[in-house]
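for the writeup, i need someone to sanity check this before i put it in the appendix. the sequnce is what the collaborator sent (i think, or maybe the updated version? ugh). structure was predicted straight from it, no edits. if anything looks off just tell me and ill rerun, i have time this weekend
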Amino acid sequence: MSYVLLVEDNDDHALLAGMALSGSNHIFEVERAKNADECFSMIQTKHYDAIVLDYSLPKKNGLEILQYIAGISYDTPVIMVTSQGDEKIAVEAMKCGAYDYVIKSEDYIDRLPMTVQNAVKSHKLEKEGTELQSRIKESELRLRNIFEKIEAGVVEADSDCRVIYANPKAKNYLNINYGVDTNALCAIFSKKETDSIVPDCTQCVVKQCSQTGEPANCEVEFSDRQFSASITSVYKSEGIIKGVILVLIDVTDQKKFQQQLIQSERINVLGRMASGVAHKFNNVLAVIMGRTELMLANQTIGEDIRKELRIIQKVAEDGTEAIRRLQEFTRVAKQKEFVKLNVDDIVQEALSMTEPSWKDQTEYYGVKVNVVPNLNSQAIILGNSTDLKEAFAKIIFNAVDAMPYGGTLSVETYTENGCAYIKISDTGAGIEPETLEKIFEPFFTTKGSGHSGLGLSIAYGIINKYDGGIDVKSTPEKGTTFTVVFDIYDGVLSEDEKPLPSSDQSVKAKILAIDDDVMIREILSNILIHLEHEVTAVADGTEGIRLYQSGNYDIVFTDLGMPGISGWEVAHKVKEIDPNAVIVMITGWSSELNEDELKDKNVDFIVDKPFKIERIAEVVSKGIELRGLDRMV
């Protein structure tokens, strides 16, 4: 049903028009206004689907009423009815916004219903079209806002690969704009690698997709960035391919992270391999060092043989240090005990450690690296010798790598304002400012896939662990200087830093030694016998626990890693039998064990492998004191 307002002052005309509209096929409900005031009042309270407006009205004519309706934006079609021959008025009415006009002729009553019906239908369609266009514009705006802000590049191209639309990300990623020629996309997405400035469009993934309609996924590199691209065809209504849509995601950082994970996994695998090698060599070195020390303890051996034995001892100690560095690589070590160290001695040892890098290897390739040491500090600092030598070595390695064609490596130490300074300088390629701020980041490297990117980050971590500072200054093409600073130690040794007392030979201890390695077991027994203690040695933890239960032992030495029952379990079982038992754990991984962990696992002392007679004597002496023994030999 449509509601019609008939504005007519003539009663007869109003009656005829009302009857014509009400009696038509289209259902109209007609209300009448006799003049302008009634019309204005009625349209303020109700919406009509159409207004039939007579021109000749009292006070205000139809044109004036039409202008009022247009002025208040009353959204409905108006049909102006004029007297016969008043076409001028009809034209003015159309200018004022009337939908149509009807001239009062003999048959105008018959034509009026169809005119009103057409006006209602046309207005409805026009309104629906306007609303549809509005929704389309809103949808376009919403999609455009999404495309403009989305964290992906979106490109629309026609079938000739000309860019029709590119959102800001795509413009930034690919440096493209609307309307660029075919070569722009084809040059980027061509599968064929060529130095030609003219791309081979037959090898272009985008072109192939626009021809076949088959979607495609690929990765592309552009301006040192890597992108994952998804390409989909767009069709016209008749099924003809109109063009393609490309969605680009920047995967550069993701690829880097994946490479870091792969590198990390390689390091983990290498670490597990190194762990096994370190354990095996620790046992070998323990036998070598133990046997050597026992032979040196024999006063009947001549000085010539002693000299040779000391060489073997020194080489074994160097091997022990190499194993320590290998172990540092395979784990995150606990905080080590701080001891007093001479800065110059540590730096000199780091130079000696790295000599194969700056001397032997460089000379092999015909390159000369001139090392200029200037060690004038003699300052004492607190730290761990192995850690700090490792940190300085990594900085030296970095300096040597920066001088592939040779140069000068200057190493200087000095004291200033209560601090010890270590300067390591090279005359190499230098570091760009944007790279300088990243050099201490883990896995960051500019040296290619053959380097882990961990060297300087490890050095930074070690220096920071001992409350030191590190500063880097570099000039491209001129060189780089690393300056490390530590507070000078001016205190006294704490109780924990004082050396352990030597073995008290006035007390003879009964000792149980447990180790599955026959050579380690024998050398430990021989050392303890040399120290004049009573020793029982067994090969596994189960037998050791049984003997302890039936015997009267003062101290138990047990290996940590054994088949069957581990050293931890031996310590637990022995402490259950005798809470006052003294447990000494033998291991090559002592730096991984902290004090709280040892107490929790019933271990009183740790002995590193490879062990020395001096250390065994110290631990036994402490064990005797802890046990409260007073038996005399």
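The chain has five domains: 2-128, 150-250, 256-329, 339-487, 499-627. Confidence is low (pLDDT under 50) at residues 492-504.
thx in advance!!
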